[in-house]
């Protein structure tokens, strides 16, 4: 998953209240840290900041500022892409929940007839 996709997923999970650039950067950094590779936090923060600024310029942009300094959210009112993205992430979540719910323990109890 690329940084762009991770940023959009984080904004989707944040909802209408939005989330700060610092928190988005921290989430993206943590998603990409592994035992063998740790990206530079300043590079990740810079990328996130530039991505958010670039994609929040017009009224029809995918991302919008919340009015607070440094806080962003998905533009669900002015952008058809944001509405579609919300639906895609919701469908993905529902499918994952259904898969977890459908996994039942069908094994036999070894000591059921002993008593």
| Distance from first to last alpha carbon | 53 Å
Instruction: Give the total of beta strands.
Output: 3
The overall pLDDT, averaged over residues, is 80
* Approximate shape: extended
Number of helices in the DSSP assignment: 4
| Protein structure class | mainly alpha
* Fraction in helix: 40-55%
Write down the Rg: 20 Å
Strand content: 5-15%
Q: Which ranges are low-confidence, i.e. pLDDT below 50, for 5 or more consecutive residues?
A: none
What does the main sheet amount to? 3 strands, antiparallel
**Helix-strand pattern:** HEHHEEH
How are the strands of the biggest sheet laid out side by side?
1-3-2
Which descriptors apply to this entry?
mainly alpha; 115 residues; single chain; 4 helices; three-stranded antiparallel beta sheet
Could you please describe the fold and organization of this structure?
The chain has 115 residues and is mainly alpha-helical. It has 4 helices and 3 strands; from the N terminus they run αβααββα. It has a 3-stranded antiparallel β-sheet. A hairpin with a 5-residue loop joins strand 2 and strand 3 (71-74). The chain starts with a helix and ends in a 13-residue tail after the last helix. The mean pLDDT is 80.
Question: How are the secondary structure elements laid out?
Answer:
Elements: H1 3-14, E1 19-20, H2 21-32, H3 41-54, E2 63-65, E3 71-74, H4 80-102
Antiparallel strand pairs: 1-3, 2-3
Helix pairs in contact: 1-2, 2-3
């Amino acid at each position: 998953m690329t940084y762009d996709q991770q940023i959009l997923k984080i904004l989707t999970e944040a909802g209408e209240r939005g989330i700060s650039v610092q928190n988005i950067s921290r989430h993206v950094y943590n998603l990409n840290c592994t035992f063998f590779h740790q990206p530079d936090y300043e590079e990740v923060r810079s990328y996130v900041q530039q991505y958010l600024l670039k994609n929040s310029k017009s009224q029809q942009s995918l991302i919008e500022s919340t009015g607070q300094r440094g806080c962003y959210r998905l533009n669900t009112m002015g952008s058809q892409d944001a509405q579609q993205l919300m639906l895609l992430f919701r469908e993905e979540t529902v499918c994952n929940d259904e898969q977890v719910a459908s996994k039942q323990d069908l094994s036999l109890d070894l000591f059921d007839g002993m008593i």
